[in-house]
Amino acid sequence: MSQETIAQILKEYIYQSLTEKKRTDGRELYEYRQIQIEPGVIEVAEGSARVHLGNTDVLAGIKIATGEPFSDTPDVGVLTTNAELIPMASPYFESGPPNPKSIELSRVVDRGLREGEVIDLKKLCIEPGEKVWIMFLDLHILDYDGNLFDAGALASVAALASTKVPASQYELGDDFQLPIKNWPVMTTFAKIKDVTVLDPSLEEEKVADARLSIYTDQDGHVRAMQKGLNGGFTLDEVKDMVKKSEEKGKELRKILMDAVGGA
């Protein structure tokens, strides 16, 4: 039996379950797996967090240094995001330079952090046009069982919220907590034929036709969106997912803020 045939059988099995409003792991169509957030897990980093989303396991670490700002934003701090998908986390990952999956993950997470204005970057300016604080955010995938986007976004915000700027190391005053401005969270949906589910597992991702990730903030505003895979969504489906993203975003944000002690 070919891999293509096996994949088709799996897709039909999953789809039939979904038409009966059931998922192979027992969840409702728009139910998240169990979420656990642990901030401050790396002692040598300025900030860090580990997130378990079901069996998906993501670690975020942050290092901070001083450097020159971009010429078009001379009084704004800098945030760079990188994602590493190591073979130990999944047989689907390969060693070597960043692949399209890791690039997409880092870009989607980074866009949401920027558009969601998690950090007040203007408060990270030391000397306009000369020196600002630069944050390096690294995502490490420890175990992959689907939906790296939401897990990566949660880990990133939790890590940023736990970060202290090491000003004393640079003789620039006392260390201070990174200024968190907003609390955006990402909710990811996958479409299998004509059924849409939230927080796709690895099995569901493997047979999905389309994917949509939506960043919302604490006011329910959509801050960023990313459509993935080759299939499409109707306008009504997108409207429905946006509404559900606002609702589920409140649940995720409470878990996140409870974990990091956010206001």
Describe this structure in words.
This protein has 263 residues and is α+β, with helices and mostly antiparallel strands. It has one domain: 2-Layer Sandwich (Ribosomal Protein S5, domain 2), CATH 3.30.230.70. The protein is built from 5 helices and 12 strands. The protein has helices at 3-19, 100-115, 148-161, 202-207, 235-260, and strands spanning 35-39, 47-53, 56-67, 78-85, 125-127, 131-143, 164-165, 176-177, 185-192, 195-198, 210-216, 222-228. It is elongated. The N and C termini lie far apart (55 Å).
How would you sum up this structure in a few lines?
This protein has 263 residues and is of the alpha+beta class. 30% of the residues lie in helices and 30% in strands.
Defining traits:
Ribosomal Protein S5, domain 2; six-stranded mixed beta sheet; 30% strand; 5 helices; alpha+beta; 263 residues
